[in-house]
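Hi D.,

Good news: the full-assembly prediction came through. Inputs first.
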Amino acid sequence: MSDTEKNVSLIVNKLSGGYSIRTFEETYYVDAVNKVSFYVKNNEILGIAGESGCGKSTLLKLIYGFIKYPLIVKNGEILLQPGKDKPVNILSLDSNDKRKKVWWKLMSYIPQNSMNVLNPTLKVKDHFIEVITTHMNVNRDVAYKIASEHITIMGLSKDVLTAYPHQLSGGMRQRVVIALAFLMKPRVILADEPTTALDVVVQRGILQILVENQRKLENSLIVVTHDMGIHAMITDRLLTMYAGKLVEIGNTEAVFEDPLHPYTKLLISSLPRLGEKTMRKGIHGMPPDLKSPPPGCRFHPRCPYAMEICKKEEPPILEVGKERFVACWLFEKEVKG
Amino acid sequence: MIATSKRLLSFIKKYVINVGKELYTVYSRNLKFKVGFTLFIAMIILGLFSLFSPPWYKSWYGIPKDKPPSLTSIHMLLGTSSNGRSIFWMITNGILNSIVISLITAVVASHIGLFMGITAGVKGGLVDKLLMFITDSFIVIPGLPLLIVLTMLFKEYLTIPALGLMISITSWPWPSRQVRAIVLSLRERDFMVTARLSGIGTGKIILTEMMPHLLGWHFINATNTVLYAIATEAGLAVVGLSILSEDTLGTIIYWALNYAALYRGIWWWIVPPIIMLVALFVSLYLISTGYTEYLNPRFRRR
Amino acid sequence: MISRTLLVYIAMRTVIFFITLLTAFTFVFFLLKAMPTNAVENIIASMTAQGQVYDPKALIALRKSLYELFGLTGSVMEQYFKYLYRFFVMDYGPSIIAFPTPAKDIIMNRLPWTIGLLGFSTVIAWVVGNIIGTLTAFFEGSRISKLLESVAVVIYPIPYYIMALILVYLFAFLIPIFPLTGGAGIISGQFTIEVIVDLIRRSMLPALSIIITGALGWWFLSSRTLTINVLSEDFSVYAELRGLPRTHILRKYVLKNILLPQVTALGLSLGMIFSGALLTEIIFAYPGLGELMYRAVSTGDYATAIGVLSFSILGVATATYILDIIYPLIDPRVRYR
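Then the structure:
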């Protein structure tokens, strides 16, 4: 194992998956995630950025192993490194193993739309207790103690536990869901759009909880969002996706300072910066139809730098610096080593 | 004059063609609807046989009684009853009459419901509360007992249309609530707000924006009402409160029970009407559910 | 728990209860007004015409009650209020089928029979129907589930009285397990073992017709649809993501969320008892309210018939009222506002 690998909590290897849709007229496959490879290190926050529909949420579901019709996996492996034990290939596990060994204990999930994921007929404390009694062999009273300690550590008031979900505000519910995610102290936490539909002030609070607790636990946090501002604020490394393909990955500061891939460039330049007074430019064109994606590089129809080869062949993922990767023909000559 | 009647004609033609296209689409896409619709059409065809009934088919003791079914003649296809009548002709007439009565009920009740629902939903406020209060008070009155009392009172005046109207007294509240619910949910949808903001008048909004959605539900309500009406008429008939001089599926059962057909082994008198009723119920239910599934993809089976 | 808002709510509902009764009774009043005056005389004439001698005082009482029920005495206001009084006090005058026993007494006599049979059967149908419906949806895709659904589709539209006829034919005639008619001769009031066994035998078929059409019809279909809906809700998916076992999800997520609407529906259908198995009782000659109604109709006993009708109205309105009061006590969403 290389130095990097010893320090890694999750490896995704050439992962491909998508949706198999059957309508009355036809059956087709939506290629949502195509040959994506990357790794996540211990004690880091990795951000995944991209437009709506680029496959980020699907990627998370695949990583977690939550494969439900019509989602299918075509290829690849997802290796979870649970500390000193052997790595586990998520895709090779059956549902029982996933449920009993991996889910919530090694890896947890903060779903999109998390304001509506709490059971309206259960009090908040029951949500915690049920997780604890399922994954640990303790009775309800002990579980309750564990839950209240945890809630306090997360920075929430104990009163929250005795409430019903509808009595809490959206932001409060979001915090509860985050608290649940950290409950079993998993190695990897997947967060899907943790701040959408919340106002900026509440957003800040949510991000604070996320980051503080990640630092305390020193585990890996993957944050998926289209909001580049959030990536700039909290992530250590940044991964951009486009039309199901990994497009660029690297240290967040480096990517923001000098975005390499044309798409990343356009994404970042769409953000306003202090002092800049020029007009923001959008990216013209539309994301491709993933039923039949364009040949070659999927970004070529919208790319201002598109070359002939881009239209014909898919660019490989090229290493262009320390832990810096780009999938673009422009950098063929700059490949390190 | 000629111009308006020409326009009317082309409007009707367009309407019929659209309905036909819609029915064809649902038919080809939804199994439940297909089965139900086919079955229902089969029943109607069976009922249409009644148009060929011989003029003497209503008279009692016209043919030998209590004879089991045989293929000797078309009159004997289903055998004869204990009062000397051909069951085959009774059944075919019964199907048609039952359907006619319930169609009258369905047309009247579902349109009252449509009107009340739209008015309540669109006007809102006091009008809505008032209309819904009236509706709710009516819902509280149990249908069958009320109808029993009514048919008891108006026994002499019972004709087929009158019975249809009577049953609609108990069937209009339900469609009214349904339509109102749909209108309310449509009102808040984006396209409605856009239409309102663009200044189109309320009447036009109802016609052009809401109607396409409403018509689907109107059809479902009408179908459910037909089912309810057939069942109710049969129920009334079984206890002797329908039009006993006419043949409906319910009255056939009444007379059969009256002559203790079941216990005397004359099964060919009581079994066919029950089978026909069940067939009608199942077909109407399939049509209704099938169409609901078609309208709302969420209910489609995976 | 008993907050001021709750008390206000109860008060409002009570008021609405009485107003609804008032409106319903008024509707019936107008419908009854259509009865021609001489019809009352005809009724009384036909009674005496059979040569029987009646106590003249009782006949006068009968005439008076019939006139008032049909709103034929005094001014319009007087008519209305006299009628209303009779309805609220439940004094329908003497019955005709058991002259001169007041209609009210006969109705009261029969009430426990109907409530017993129908209440019992409805509850059993509800329990059974919910169980198989929920399990069918939970194990969606299995062969049994598809089979049950097809069966339900056929059974649901069949009214219970048709089912009653079918059952009578099959189990009382073809394979004579059960007696053809039920309940006769038990009104003596003795409760020996023989009588009870006999009672059970005689109520089996009517009960079965209600149970089969209910459990395999409406309760099956509704609980199945509800379960499918709940399982596709975000909170159910979240429960799965957290690795909670299926049985737990069935109990705390599915059942807890479908019980509320189903209990409400049960309450409503118990209210419908009065118009419910009317015909079943008639077919089985079961001595309940339905059979009474039938007898009243066949003998032209308007007093009793109207009495049963208003009882049914009262029953349905009361059931709805009680349900409305109980509902906020069970649904946490409504309780804590």
